[in-house]
Amino acid sequence: MENSKSLRTWLDDFKLSHPLVIAGPCSAETEEQVMEIARELKDSDVSIFRAGIWKPRTRPGGFEGVGEIGLKWLQKAKAETGLLMAVEVANEAHVKSALEHDIDVLWIGARTTVNPFAVQEIADALKGTDKIVLVKNPVNPDLSLWLGGVERLYNAGIKKLGVIHRGFSTYEKTKYRNIPEWQIAIELQSRFPDLPLICDPSHITGRRDMILEVSQQALDLNYDGLIIETHNDPEHAWSDAAQQVTPDALKQIFIDLRIRKMTD
Ligand code: PEP
Ligand code: MN
3.40.50.2000, 3.30.70.270, 3.40.190.10, 3.20.20.70: which CATH number matches 5-257? Predict the structure, then answer.
């Protein structure tokens, strides 16, 4: 993968004077929930709305996502709010239905980045499109595997790329849900300074009271953006309830981070 300025042109197209902000629920649950959160995030610093439709759960038996019907809700939210829509894709079928429903941004989850076959299948299914694709770090602290995922997309002709740092699994109990290992992201940033780097404080911390602190650390390290799970009723969220914030809390985080949108 060349270290080309073209990697960040998509980000520059947002014409932001602050980091890119992606926000929305861990999972789309109902049409009303999606619409309510999207309406509250419209006219804020948020540029892209996220919602998981197919949820890769560590253990079976949990909520596994609403599936394709959720894509219709996202289309409706996009038509009403103008926010770009982002979903997680883990295989070719997901990519196909996301493309059919005009989803703007696809992200590859941490449990998928570890699997080169799955990433290659996604890359092949995206050939010829000009979607924005964001690659989360793999669950294990392996920079090559992370970069390898990005390269598979790049080699398939996808040039609107970025990476999401969501922390790494460890058997050890720490204050984080997934330890940041900042040095891995910093090495990636120094090797590919034009590859947009986005921090996911929600999955790093696993707790809403630490989102501000980790977001601030990321911005101090010159990250290009933040992806923050945001829910209208976080405590009753169907997945990742402990780490989601309300839209009002998210707006307060922006104030505290002194993120300001350019008004032109
Ligand atoms: C998510 O973004 O909701 C998610 C499942 O994240 P990760 O792949 O980082 O665990
Ligand atoms: Mn989540």
Answer: 3.20.20.70
